[in-house]
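pls design
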């Protein structure tokens, strides 16, 4: 017979970690959409695409800061803070690669 381990806890996920995760997803969707539209326009894109890239950079930086704040809160679950941190760092590296490649 299998034992079931039920853990009752009053811990909650950090709100800053959840917000960091949401920002990471928004940035990733925005970047992928911008790149797909850039290919659809065959490189002839308006200047608003550059603004999207700049805002994605800012949102990623804010997401990293929020994830670090969320990870510093005691007695909380850190799942969304960890995922948000990894996602925002990956987004920032993705933006850096786009700028480095000159696309």
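designed seq:
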């Amino acid at each position: 017979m299998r034992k079931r381990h039920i853990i009752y806890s009053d811990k909650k996920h950090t709100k800053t970690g959840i917000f960091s995760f949401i920002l990471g997803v928004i940035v990733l969707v925005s970047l992928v959409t911008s790149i797909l539209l850039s290919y659809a326009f065959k490189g002839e894109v308006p200047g608003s695409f550059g603004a999207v890239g700049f805002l994605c950079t800012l949102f990623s930086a804010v997401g990293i800061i929020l994830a670090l704040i969320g990870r510093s809160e005691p007695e909380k679950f850190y799942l969304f803070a960890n995922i948000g941190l990894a996602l925002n760092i990956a987004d920032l590296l993705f933006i850096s690669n786009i700028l480095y490649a000159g696309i």
